[in-house]
């Protein structure tokens, strides 16, 4: 009892975090797992259905697989160019000849803290099929209009461009921090030994940046698999006329709050969790190969 009184004050100080985590974090996770094995409309009694939600999801729901395909394509279109551009921007910001570096860092990071709803609305005016700014510019130079919203391919490109614009600066700042943590003595020693800039990049910069690159790849994978606001604002909750913008989270939202199939939506959420876990693991193995881990 005396020991409990000794540590009572520290435990009380940290208890708000754990209480909030249990109520708003742990409980919803466990409840969604419980709900995935039931049929529930959100108001009436729950009906235990076992694995029926998962079975229907995998065998009888073409829209689920369409949303999976759309999500992976958008991830591919956005993540690879985004991380490449972020690395280029980080190298430029780290260059000795660049002035006003703090200003450029703020400018590149600004899209990440801008309201995504406002961004999506602005991009919607860019990619409008009839009166969009980009189609207006294309017609000025004599090129045909692009059906950004109604074409299943171009709607993915539009959503991907929004993701690239928003997250390139964020990843560039992370890469810049990684570049600045590399000791300059290594480059000086390599220069004395006659190593070229290319050799220094592949022998010093890239190996030491691998943990940072792995971090950004994993974060981009998790974020890319959970795209919701961008396609929702740009093409609506149906994913557009051809469902080309229907992502996994958008489909989950439709099933839960559109069709009131909360058990089915919970099954989608756990399938999403499984997909993110597997895909993140594959990315980790791909990026970290050759290091013996």
From TrEMBL:
It is a multi-pass membrane protein. It is found in: Cell membrane. Residues 68-283 form the ABC transmembrane type-1 domain. InterPro entries: ABC_transporter_permease, MetI-like, MetI-like_sf. The chain crosses the membrane at residues 12-37, 72-97, 109-133, 153-177, 208-228, 261-284. Keywords: Cell membrane, Membrane, Transmembrane, Transmembrane helix, Transport. Pfam families: BPD_transp_1. The keyword Phosphoprotein does not apply. Its main location: membrane. Belongs to the binding-protein-dependent transport system permease family. PANTHER family: ABC TRANSPORTER PERMEASE PROTEIN, INNER MEMBRANE ABC TRANSPORTER PERMEASE PROTEIN YCJO. This is Sugar ABC transporter permease. It comes from Paenibacillus alginolyticus.
């Amino acid at each position: 009892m005396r020991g409990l009184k000794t540590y009572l004050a520290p435990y009380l100080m940290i208890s708000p975090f754990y209480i909030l985590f249990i109520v708003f974090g742990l409980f919803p996770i466990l409840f969604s797992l419980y709900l995935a094995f039931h049929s529930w409309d959100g108001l009436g009694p729950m009906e235990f259905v076992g694995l029926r939600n998962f079975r229907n999801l995998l065998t009888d729901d073409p829209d689920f697989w369409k949303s999976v395909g759309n999500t992976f394509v958008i991830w591919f279109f956005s993540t690879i160019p985004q991380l490449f551009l972020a690395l280029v921007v980080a190298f430029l910001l780290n260059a000795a000849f660049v002035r006003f570096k703090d200003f450029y860092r703020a400018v590149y990071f600004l899209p990440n803290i801008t309201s995504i709803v406002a961004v999506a609305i602005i991009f919607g005016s860019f990619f409008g099929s009839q009166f969009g700014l980009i189609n207006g510019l294309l017609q000025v130079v004599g090129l045909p209009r692009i059906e950004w919203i109604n074409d299943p391919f171009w709607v993915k490109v539009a959503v991907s461009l929004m993701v690239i614009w928003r997250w390139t600066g964020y990843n560039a700042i992370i890469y810049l921090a990684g570049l600045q943590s590399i000791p300059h003595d290594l480059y000086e020693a390599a220069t004395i030994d006659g190593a070229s800039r290319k050799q220094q990049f592949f022998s010093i910069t890239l190996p030491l940046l691998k943990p940072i690159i792995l971090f950004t790849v994993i974060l981009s994978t998790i974020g890319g698999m959970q795209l919701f606001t961008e396609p929702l604002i740009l093409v609506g909750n149906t994913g557009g006329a051809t469902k080309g913008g229907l992502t996994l989270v958008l489909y989950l939202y439709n099933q839960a709050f559109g069709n009131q199939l909360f058990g089915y939506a919970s099954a989608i959420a756990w399938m999403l969790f499984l997909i993110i876990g597997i895909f993140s693991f594959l990315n980790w193995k791909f990026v970290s190969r050759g290091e013996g881990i």
